[in-house]
Amino acid sequence: MWQYARQPYDFVRRYCGKKCALVGAWIYFRYGYFNDTLELAQKWKILITNQFVGDPRLPSTVDVLVLGGGVMGLSAAWAASKLKRKDGSPVSFVVVEKSDSTITSSWGESRILRLAYADEMKIRMMQRSYALWSTLEGIVKEELMQPSPMLTIYHDTTMHLLKNLTTAYNTLGITYRELSPREVKKEYPMVRLKRSDVAIEQTDGACIFATEAVEALKTAVGDDNIAEDKAVSVDVHNRTVTFASGKIVKYG
Description:
Helix content: 40-55%
Family: Belongs to the MSOX/MTOX family.
Low-confidence stretches: 33-37
CATH topology of the largest domain: D-Amino Acid Oxidase, Chain A, domain 2
InterPro entries: FAD-dep_OxRdtase, FAD/NAD-bd_sf, MTOX
Distance between the termini: 44 Å
Number of domains: 3
GO molecular function: flavin adenine dinucleotide binding; sarcosine oxidase activity
Keywords: FAD, Flavoprotein, Oxidoreductase
Strand order of the largest sheet: 1-13-12-11
Order of helices and strands: HHHEEHEEHEEHEHEEHEEEE
Structural class: alpha/beta
Strand content: 15-25%
Domain FAD dependent oxidoreductase: 63-221
């Protein structure tokens, strides 16, 4: 068993001293031998590593450094994973997410995907996102979104925006229907509109399963490319980021 305990023993001795390492080795022998598992030693080693030298998955230099492991950060990392350098070698990248994150927008059961934008560029971006989500579904072999028609409702105060939306739809060849309050009541009985309201129905909407989507992106990015730490300062001039563990990473 000592051959398995030797590596974590040497590691902890380096950073914590001989006494701490001996205690750790005893714990490893006690639980590793009787329970026939390396799990405790592995967790212990990772804990010590993160505390003293930072997450080992966080390199000192990297081409693309992504701060934040939500849907935006993971999507950026997924895109980076497909990039190549001029010599044809893959671009190096890492996502850094703080483990104690309490403020995030990538949470909950679902989010809405829709083309209800008067800006043609935004519509094209959303159409592209539909294709990417479908690609991701193929990678993880799991349903991530549910198609659903979408209603955009215009009231007296927003009626001037209606023409902008329909103009964008017509320019891009997107099909839609303009529904009166009576038609909405008939087809969507749960919705009640005023007589002066107008609804635009567009069938290329979808509901995306938020939690599953984030987990799918993590799978596509790869666990080895996701590190835990907290950025405390960014030096744009020198292209470095300093983390709570004390580690400084140079990017670009």
